[in-house]
Amino acid sequence: MNINASLFVQMVVFFLGAWVTMKYIWPPLIRAIENRQKKIAEGLRAADLGQSALAEATKKQQAVEAQARAQAVAIVADGEKRGQNIVEQAKTQAQVEADRIVKAANEEADQEIARAKDALRDQVAQLAVLGAKQILKREVNVETHKALLEELKAKL
């Protein structure tokens, strides 16, 4: 065997293998690598978009949370104001009711005093009649002297 012929055949096989590799094997590998690079690039872009969307969502969530806190504070303050108004109204109504009860009690006391005075006048009139009866030693008729007794009551 000749070394030159062997070298020549090896060179032909090498170039033939290189040509087959470049023609049929290399293009699908390059396409697969390029597709994989595109997918990786898209994944990185999606991750970046996801990060920015997460940051934006976090900002929105914080804004909504702050607004909700402010609203809660406003609702609590409004509730406290309403509670104070209700307490004030209840105090006012209680005062009005107390004044009404005191007025009614005063009126009832005045009526009791008037009744007591009338009863006392009647008793004084009866005592005066009894005294006059004792003095005159005769019976005084209440019906006949009614006008006189009424005048006596009025003076007392």
Q: Number of helical segments?
A: 2
Q: How large is the share of residues in beta strands?
A: under 5%
Distance between the termini: 172 Å
Percent in helix = over 70%
The major β-sheet equals: none
Count the beta strands: 0
Q: Give the overall pLDDT as a whole number.
A: 87
Contiguous low-pLDDT stretches (5 residues minimum) are none
Order of helices and strands: HH
- Inertia-based shape: rod-shaped
Structural class: mainly alpha
User: What is the gyration radius calculated from CA atoms?
Assistant: 60 Å
Question: Care to describe what's here?
Answer:
- The protein is an all-alpha fold and 156 residues long.
- The chain has a domain at 3-111.
- The chain has two helices and no strands.
- The protein is rod-shaped, with a radius of gyration of 60 Å.
- It is a single-pass membrane protein.
Structural topology:
Blueprint: H1 3-136, H2 146-155
How would you summarize this macromolecular structure in one to three sentences?
With 156 residues, the chain is an all-alpha fold. It has helices at residues 3-136, 146-155.
Characteristics of this structure?
2 helices, single chain, rod-shaped, 156 residues, mainly alpha
